[in-house]
Amino acid sequence: MARPLTRPSTIATWNRNPADEEAMGAAHAPIWRRMVDVSVPHDLSASTVLDYGCNQGGFLRLLYDNHPFKAAAGIDIARESVARAELLKGHRPIQYKVADQAAALGQTFDFAFSHEVIYLLPDIASHANDIRQALRPGGAYVAAIGCHTDSSIWPRWRSVISEHSSIPMYDHSLEDVARAFTAAGFTVAVRPLALDAFMPVTLGSAYFPKITDQLRYYSDDKVMFRFVRQT
Question: What pTM did the predictor assign?
């Protein structure tokens, strides 16, 4: 049975199993590539980028290697994951910090991204306002989310994830997300993820015990929001 959780200000890692935490980046890479392919302009050389919930930093490394940017920041509350991200960044112009508020960085960004972060936040309205402060006017935030109450597999998957997560999760609908960002002054758009690459299959996966669950999650239930700050 999952133990009750309250949201701490920092944690060591998101996944209580260190091996699973290390493997997360490889599993997420096809999703990150799809996010980049459909939402990133060809030239980011003059742009600044934020990764909200960066974990071990793989998204920004992938983005920079395909679309070099001027500078970027990644934030996460997982201390060991952020330290790992900092170790792996190499020559890339990325700064990783342990934080849960983007505005606290004191910077404004042209683009922000997150992947499966919103369901771990208790207050979407606060998150929307935080991102608004961190984006320049006209800046865009792209958030991929499959963990939501409109997902057909969420009730079972929520129970499975709770066995692994170091922090609690929350039941947000896609409508909840759209309303919060609209109220914060964003133009909201949404599309299916429509993954166009093969996903690796791990037989016996605790997350996806059936391949049909994995296909349903990536094909039917995972979407990308684009929030553009109006002024």
Answer: 0.89
